[in-house]
Write a structure and sequence with these properties.
By secondary structure, this protein is an alpha+beta fold. Helix 4 packs across helix 5. The model has no long low-confidence stretch (mean pLDDT 94). Strands 3-2-1-4 form a four-stranded mixed beta sheet, with helices on one face. The longest helix has 21 residues. It contains five helices and four strands; from the N terminus they run H-E-E-E-H-H-H-H-E. 45% of the residues lie in helices and 20% in strands. The protein has a single domain, classed as Sufe protein. Chain: A (Alpha-Beta Complex). The structure holds FE2/S2 (inorganic) cluster.
Length: 137
Amino acid sequence: MGLGSDMYRQQILDHYKNPRNYGELEDADIEHVGDNPMCGDTIKMFIQLAEDETIERVSFIGDGCAISQASASMLSGELRGESLEAVREMDRDDIVDMLGVELSPMRIKCAVLPEKVAQDAIAIYRGEADIEETTTE
Ligand code: FES
């Protein structure tokens, strides 16, 4: 394992211990919850939109492993200023790049949970989906 990977591991731990944008967003335009049924860990994302429908603020609450919570924390910063379309086009490679570490298939499910919650939240907001709760399956 190289130094670069160590640095990313530190960053993940830091986001886990000191999550950014943690808490409920009052006045959220979009909010949605999801879980990883393998472990029961949950993430709820809150998204506030600007007038042009770009993302103005993102927050989350959750309970879970370091990867899922760090991924939510990092994603909450990454999504600010993005268009809803850009968020919907994100895929797991974007999340792996963001986290900067190789992950096993089990851990990938942890990592992509916040992204899936955000994407489903946007689909619901646009009336394109009727999803009560997102899962990683
Ligand atoms: Fe539950 Fe990671 S172990 S989301």
